Amino acid sequence: MSISQSRTGPDIQVPEWERPRDKVSANGHGANGVGHHAGIYLRTRSLHVLDKIIPAHRQYFGQQRRTFLIILGIIMFLLVALVIGLAAGLSVHPRSQNLPLPSNSQPHTGDLTYYDPALGSCGVMSTGGEMVFAVSHSVFDSFARGSNPNANPLCGRRIRASRFDEQANAQRSVDLTLVDRCVGCNPTDIDVSPAAFAELADPGAGRVTVTWAWLEPLP
User: Fold this and answer.
1) What is the enclosing helix (H) or strand (E) of 216?
2) CA angle at residue 203 from 172 to 169, to 5 degrees?
3) Does residue 164 sit in helix, strand or coil?
4) pLDDT at 61 over 90
5) Calpha distance 37→121 (Å, rounded)
């Protein structure tokens, strides 16, 4: 007569494929089946509502419902993109209030440099002996009207530039006409003709500080 004895040993990790699975419900589906049926119900319900609003058997602007919905989705996407673009443009616009614009005659201080003018962004041919200047690209571009820079309303506007000449121990000023756009200028910098620079400072200095103001506002 043998007596069986129970053995105790270390815990054994049961492989995943041998673990008991979820109990099957009475309708033959496991726990995941409930979520599956819920998804089917929601899709069916959504299609039912869509059929009431946009019946599948009708045509819309000569198109089947599927094609019409695709076109409608593209239009909605473009409208959203347009709204976002306009919102971004409006958020950028207030920054132009910090630019030295002709809307006021207050003085602005920046760097004065000179260059050899020729055919400028305003479409005007100028020479180094004329009293002309180029304004910063940020100021010029803020008034852009389309792709033609010649149509910029800043073209032909005048400013008065002034500075104290240490060598002459006198205040100098000169009136300048805008004919060009300066890519390397900060908002309050101006780039003038050699003749204009000589009226305000020694050309050998190359770069000096200047104060200037618009003489006429935009109409």
Assistant:
1) none
2) 35
3) strand
4) no
5) 68
Exposed/middle/buried for residue 206 (C-beta within 10 Å: 0-12, 13-18, 19+)? exposed
Q: Which residue bears the tokens 């053995």?
A: 7
Number of helices followed by number of strands (H, E) in the chain:
4, 6
Spatial separation of the C-alpha atoms in residues 175 and 181, rounded to whole Å: 17
Looking up tokens 């005659």 gives: 105
Say whether pTM exceeds 0.70.
no
Q: What per-residue string of b and e applies to 66-76 under the rule 16 or more CB within 10 Å gives b?
A: eebeeeeeeee
How many other C-beta atoms can be found within 10 angstroms of the C-beta atom of residue 143? Answer: 19
Q: What does the pLDDT look like over 90-115, one tens digit per residue?
A: 444 434 457 888 887 789 999 999 99
33 exposure class (CB count in 10 Å sphere: 0-12, 13-18, 19+): middle
